[in-house]
Specification:
heterodimer; A: twelve-stranded mixed beta sheet; 17 helices; B: 418 residues; alpha+beta; 2 domains; six-stranded mixed β-barrel; five-stranded antiparallel beta sheet; 11 helices; 14 strands
Chain lengths: 445, 418
Amino acid sequence: MFAYYLDLAWRSLRRSPGLTALMMLVVGFGVAGSMTTYAVFRGMSGDPIPWKSAKLFVPQIDAWGPVQLSGSGAADGAHEPPDALTYADAMALLHDHRAARQSAIFAIAPTVLPAGAGRSPIPVFGFAVDDEFFPMVDVPFRYGSGWSADEDAQGAPVVVIGDALNQQVFGGANSVGRNLDLDGKDYRVIGVMQPWNPQPMFFDVVDTGGFSSDGPALFLPLQRAIVAGTENAGAVNCPKGTQPGTGQAGLRQSACVWLAYMAELDDAAAVNGYRRYLDAYARSQQAIGRFDWPPNNRLRDLRGFLEYQHVVPDDSRVSLLVALGLLLVCLVNTAGLLLAKFLRRSGEIGVRRALGASRAAIHAQYLTEAAVIGVGGAVLGLLLTGLGVFSVNRMLPPRLADLAQVDLPLLSLTVLVSVLASALAGVYPAVRAARVLPAWQLKTN
Amino acid sequence: MKLHPILAALRKHKAGVVLIAMQIALTLAIVCNAVFIIGSRIERVNRPTGLDESNLFLVTQQWVGAPSPDTPDGVEKLDAMQREDLAALRNLPSVANVAPTNSVPLLNSTWAGSVSLKPAAILGDKSGTRTVYYFTDEHAFSTLGLKMAAGRAFTAADVQHQGARDNPSRPIVIVTKALADKLFPKGDAVGKVIYSDGSSSPSTIVGVVERLQVPGTGSWVNGFAWNSTLVPTRLDANFSRYAVRAKPGQLEAAMRAVTPTLYKVNPLRVLDDDSVKSFADIRAKAYRADVGMAVLMGVICLILIAVTAAGIVGLTSFWVGQRHRQIGVRRALGARKIDILRYFQIENLLIAGGGAVLGVLLAIGLNLWLITRYEMAHLPVLYVLVGVLAVLLLGQAAVFVPARRASNVSPVSATRAA
C-alpha cells in the first residue's frame, strides 16, 4: 500500500512542479536556517564532561560582604557572592579536604625555553592545579600521569604538558622524565596529555571566558607555582576601591578573588554535607571577625555554574529563537500550500472515497505525499546546512566557529526535522482532504 | 467596492486565511525583534572610539630573561629597555609617533579601577565611579589622535615610570569628558582633585579629552564604556605595548619595519605574528562575533520574509485557480479587469491587516519576554510601525502576480464547465 501511495505522491508532485519546488525550497531553507543556528548554539552550550558534570561542583564564598554588591538582593543577604575565591578561602577549603576530590585552579602564562641553540622561546597558557585535579576531570594522558599528593605538598618541580607543546619541544616523543625550562627554572615532565581542549573550558570559565582555540598547554602543581611566585595570568577581582599588593605575594594577602575551585561530590548526601561545611566555614570566619555578615555561600553544580556565568552568549540563544521562529513559519507556510494542493484534488478524493477508500487511507496517502516533500526538503536542507555552517565558520571568531561543525548527529537531525516538520504540516490538510464528501463532490463535478 | 462580498468569500476559506494571517503575524513579530537586535549591534559596532584609527597599529612584545619588575633595580633596567625601544621606533622614517600604553580601545585588556571625590574611599562608597586606566606618556595624544576638550595634554615633565604591579600615587591625570561630567556636572573638572582606587593621595585633573573608549567590549563595561582615565606613567614589566602612528600611506611599511628594528635593539624577546597588529584588525577582532551574529540573524530574516511572500503567492494562486469560473461570471456581468485586481488586493490587505494586528501584539509580547530573559531594551514603536507597513507592502507585492492573472481571466470562461 505504501508503495502505491508513494507512486500517487510522485504523480501528484510531478503534476505541479512549481508548487512542489516551492514547498521543498521552503522546507529546505527553514530547516537549514534553524540547523545552522542550532549548530552554533550546540557547540557553545554542550556539556564538556557529560559523564561527570552532575558530580562536579563550584563553591562560592562571600568574602566581600553585602556592601560590595548592589542590586535588589544586596540588603537582605540574597546577593551573589564573587565568582572566584580569595587565596585564604581556597587554601582553607583545600586543607579541610571535605570533598572526594578537589582542586584550586589559577591561570598561568609562563614562557618555555626549548633546549638547543637557535630555538625561540614559546609563550604558553596553562593552569596551576592540585594533584586531584587530573582524576577529578578525567584528563586523558598519553604518557605518564599527574603528580602525587606528596609531590604536590612538597612543591616538587614537575609539570604535565599538552600534546601540542610536546610536539613542539620534544618532537612528540615520550618525554616523561625529561626537563623543561619554564621562566628560567627547570621542571621535570611527569605526564603528557592527549590532545585535550574541552569546550567550554569548564574548570576555569571565569578566566578563559569559556572558550579558547587551543587547549591548556601545561599544568603545574599549585603549591609549586605559589612557592615559585608564578604570576597569576587570569582575572583578578578586588573589592571596590582596593588594590592588591605587589606580585603574587600581594595577591595572596589581598581580599581579591582570583582562584577557581572545583569539588567532586558523589551523591546528594555529600552535596548537603558540603553545603553545611561551607556554612560552618563562613560562620567560623564570622567568629574570628574576618566576615561581619552571615554566611552567604553558593554550591552550584557544573552546568548550573556555566549557566550562571552566561558562558553561552545571549546572542546565540536569541538567534536560536529566531531560527525556531523561522521553522514555525515554514511549517505554517507548508501547511497552507499543502492545503491548497490537496483541496484542488477534491474531485480525485471524491472518486477514491466513492470507490471505497476509507478516511484512514486518504490520511495515509496525503501524509505520505507531505513526507515525500519533507525528504526533498531534507536533501536541499542538508546542502544548505553544510553551506550555512561553512559560512558561519568564515564569519564568526575562530574560538566560536570551531564549535559549529557538521557531523552525523546534525545531519540526521536535519533529515528528521525536515521530514517530521513536513508531515506535521500535512496533518491538517490531510484531515481536511479526508473530510471531502464523496457524493457532493461527484455531483458538483 | 463593498467589503461585504470579500468578507463573505473569506469565510469560505477560513483555514487558508488563518494560515496566511498567522504567517504574517509570526513574520512581523520575529523580524521586528531581530531587526531591532541587529540595529543595536550595528550601532555598537559603529560607535567611534575617540581615536584616529587610520594609520594606527599596536606592537605587543615580551622580553625573555628580563629583570624582575618587583625590585627597584629591575624596574629601572626594564624602563631603560622600554625607552630604547621607543626611541628606535620613533626614529623609523615611516613612523610619525609612538606612545607606550598598557592597552588601547577594543583590545579587551583592561585595567579597571574607581575614582572618587573623597580620599581613602571606604569599601562600597557610593561616591566612587568606575573607570579604566591608560598608562602612557606625552606622545599619546598625537599618536592616538585624541582631541582635548579642556585643559592641557601631558608634557614630558609629567611622565613617571613604575613597575607594572606597584601602586604609587598618581599626581596628575587626564579624564574623558564623560567621566569629567559625571564627577563634576558643572563642567569645571580641570584643576580639580580626585582620588583613585581608594588612595588618600590626590590626583589633579590637568585636562579633559573629548572621547576615549575603554578597552573592554563585553557587556560588563556597559556602565562605564567612556569613563577612561589617562595616567602619565610608563609601566615596566617583562612585556610592553607600543601604539604606533605611521605616516599617511606608510602603514604597511611601518608595520614591516617594526620586527627587525626591535630585534636589532635587543634580540632576547618574543615577537610573533600576533605582535604587530593594525588597529583595523583589532577592531575587526573585537566586533567579529557581533557582526557574525548580526549577519546570521539578517540572513534568517531574509529567508523568513521570502518564505512568507512565497506562501502568499502560492495560496493566492490556488484561490485564483479555484475561483476561475466565478471570476469569469463577474467579468461577464460587467466587472472590469481592474475590479478583479482590486478584489484580490483588498482581500490580501484585509488578511495581512488582521495578521499585522496579531503580529504587533506578538512582537511586543516577544520583546517583553526577551527583556525578562536577556539584556535587551524596549522595542521602539517606530520599528513596529515600519514593520506593519512592510508586511502590508510585502503582501501587496506578493499578491500582485496571481491577482493580475486573475484579472486576465476571460469572461468566456463563465460559459465553460469548471
